């Protein structure tokens, strides 16, 4: 058994974990981490293969004590992300129609109009103030507005919903303070209560939104908790990845102004490949866990039943055996088989929506603000599992 020789705590604290990931990758296809009590996988080919391995599954372990973690626990163990067939199949079949190509294409005009509205507001704020936070005024607004519109969340509730979502998602990090845990538990309860009330309202007064359609599918969901858990999953998944992806991508582009200028001049032809490179270069979700449901033999290593496998998606996306000059941000990279949307049966259902939003928003921003520049050093969101920024101050050059 090969054990890691790196300080995993440092991965939570450093701005750039990728040199550490290189060490893991060089140690072998699977590396046992005593610190995290799981196998780590940093190679692209290995991560891709294990994402599809039927011997590994998603499995959520209840947090304890059960009484204080009750809501957080059922929001996870009843959501399709942490389920396998046949439950995963049943739930994914119910949610898929909202994210099929035709449904996504029908959102194009709405997403474009929202992008224009948001960028227009950003321009006004930059006219009024020397510095504006790009996270608060750009990257957060579009995905929150879009997913809330799809679900049927009232406009006035968008901001609070996003705050609760952030606080809940933080619970997936490795190290948390007692205060962060309490806040996350309360946010989980608030989300469950909010969407429970909204689902009941839609039962009595249906509207043209996804929650109304889901509550009408009584034969699909075992109970209201399962319904609510999957609505919360759509909210969390439909916001965080794009917020963090756009934030890290724009930071990379603005830290090297020639890249931003290149995009502004050529976005008509390179937007699609730029968006894929944004998701590859600094994956919004760095670690995807699987659990062995039986003993699994992989390339000379045996993963015993019940052991965890941590697929380091960000590391896989920087594998030099798969990507030429992996540490370079290349807006014209093609092909770009990154794993940021996972793989196998759990490939991200909302990936087409995230791509549409990014492909609409970035050119609108480039046309309106080619002179955009960083006004201060961006502030990273603490943690490893979710990679993003909590504050990016920008100004006009």
What are the SSEs and their pairings?
Layout: H1 8-13, H2 18-27, E1 31-33, E2 38-41, H3 44-51, E3 56-57, H4 66-77, H5 87-95, H6 101-105, H7 108-128, E4 132-133, H8 134-139, H9 141-151, H10 158-169, H11 178-204, H12 210-215, H13 224-255, H14 257-281, E5 287-292, E6 296-298, E7 301-303, E8 308-312, H15 313-316, H16 351-368, E9 372-374, E10 379-380, E11 389-391, E12 393-396
Parallel strand pairs: 2-8
Antiparallel strand pairs: 1-2, 3-5, 4-12, 5-8, 6-7, 9-12, 10-11
What does this structure look like?
There is one protein chain. This protein has a domain at 63-281 and 343-396: Cytochrome p450. Helix content is 53%, strand content 10%. The protein contains 16 helices and twelve strands. It has helices spanning 8-13, 18-27, 44-51, 66-77, 87-95, 101-105, 108-128, 134-139, 141-151, 158-169, 178-204, 210-215, 224-255, 257-281, 313-316, 351-368, and strands at 31-33, 38-41, 56-57, 132-133, 287-292, 296-298, 301-303, 308-312, 372-374, 379-380, 389-391, 393-396. The strands form four sheets. The chain has a five-stranded mixed β-sheet with strand order 1-2-8-5-3, with helices on both faces. The chain has a three-stranded antiparallel β-sheet with strand order 4-12-9. It has a two-stranded antiparallel ribbon with strand order 6-7. The chain starts with 7 loop residues before the first helix and ends with a strand.
